[in-house]
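Morning - guanine inputs below, output right after.
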Amino acid sequence: MYKIIDGKKVASEIKKEIAGEVVKLKTAGKKVPHLAAILVGNNGSSETYVANKVKDCEEVGFESTLIRFRSEITEAALLEKIEELNNNPAIDGFIVQLPLPAHISENKVIEAIDPRKDADGFHPVNIGKMVIGLPGYLPATPYGIIELIKRYGIETSGKNCVVIGRSNIVGRPLSILLSQKGMDATVTVVHSRTKNIKDIVRQADIIIAAIGSPAFVTNDMVKNGAVVIDVGTTRVISHETKSGFKLVGDVDFESVAPKCSYITPVPGGVGPMTRVSLLRNTLIAARKD
Ligand code: GUN
């Protein structure tokens, strides 16, 4: 029988740990961590993510600031706001929610963030530090997945790990972290141009699906006893929920789960861990003052 990797439960434990750290900071007369989030436009998924991030801050006792702009904002005006946050000592860390409208360069925006305040861990300086194993801010989703794997005591050393997807914010950084000393997995990254994806995924002891394609991973791609981590969160219309939407993963859970040793659900698997990683990065940033 497969076991569910309960990201919601683990995230809630970590939030309690962080809340305890906030109390300690307050007791020591220090300022509480302050996370800011910039949201451009009104992309439905981004609205939900950012609202949840603000809620998380309240839960652990952080201060938070939400800065909203209409999708018409110019790149220059957004970069100016980023510079202001870089120089504002009240803000310990901040994020710019992605995706951004097409007329704004995401790379330029990410590079404009002070690496010391880069709570998402997306800045090239932090990515570079991650690659060579120096302390810095780790990208939130990979950081959360590594923490889930550790807290569930899942063995990665010498295991065949297949990462499906090569995005800058999930697949690529995760592939690097899993192959590092301490995790010691043998990592293969597959993507849209890979030949024989099914055959490669079938060899995996650990499968990480991060492509945003609903039910991409099917029963015939999974070997018995595999660990399956589903990073997909595609929003689809649903008549079953109050909101009229539901989140679906990259894994066909019903058919795949019976073959697994461990599997993450969507929602309630990786998502809550991403949010908690952001809090951890903000706490680290606040301690640096
Ligand atoms: N869009 C999807 N995931 C993320 C994330 O982790 N951070 C930001 N800033 N935008 C995202």
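Note: The domain at 31-125 is CATH 3.40.50.10860 (Rossmann fold).

O.
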